[in-house]
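Practice problem 4.
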């Protein structure tokens, strides 16, 4: 989906709620769709602060992110760090995430077998699936190696 079409969709979404697509909201939207990485509200705020354009307050960033999630333009993920991260989802296939508990690295993956199991279980339960979020937490290869290489202390040795 092209950015112009996303602007029109977001503007329509806002209009239905009695809101306008302000220059500040447009900057938030444009910057969110300019990256393919997961980002926090604070990271988005810093990007906007560093770049030329209409000034955007931290509160506007948070409110705009909420609107973008509500409208289905972005999805949020709780990586367990105390702040949500966001990614744009329009035009992207559904995917799931693995999150490193040590360094915070987020990897995306898709597996049709998992998707099929979820659909089968919903059908068995008579549940109409609308969406889902799958987040696996653990340690990435590098952090797992570091954890294995740590000297064992008396409290962990048995």
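Answer key:
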């Amino acid at each position: 989906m092209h950015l112009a079409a996303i602007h029109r969709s977001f503007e329509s979404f806002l209009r239905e709620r009695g809101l306008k697509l302000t220059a500040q909201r447009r900057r938030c939207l444009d910057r969110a769709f300019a990256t393919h990485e997961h980002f926090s509200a604070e990271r988005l705020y810093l990007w906007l602060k560093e770049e030329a354009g209409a000034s955007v307050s931290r509160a506007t960033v948070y409110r705009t992110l909420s609107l973008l999630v509500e409208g289905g333009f972005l999805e949020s993920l709780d990586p367990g760090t105390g702040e949500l991260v966001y990614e744009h989802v329009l035009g992207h296939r559904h995917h799931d995430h693995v999150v490193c508990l040590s360094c915070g690295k987020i990897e995306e993956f898709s597996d049709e077998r998992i998707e099929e199991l979820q659909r089968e279980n919903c059908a068995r339960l008579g549940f109409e699936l609308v969406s889902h979020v799958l987040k696996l937490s653990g340690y990435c290869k590098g952090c797992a190696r570091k954890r294995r290489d740590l000297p064992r202390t008396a409290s962990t040795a048995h």
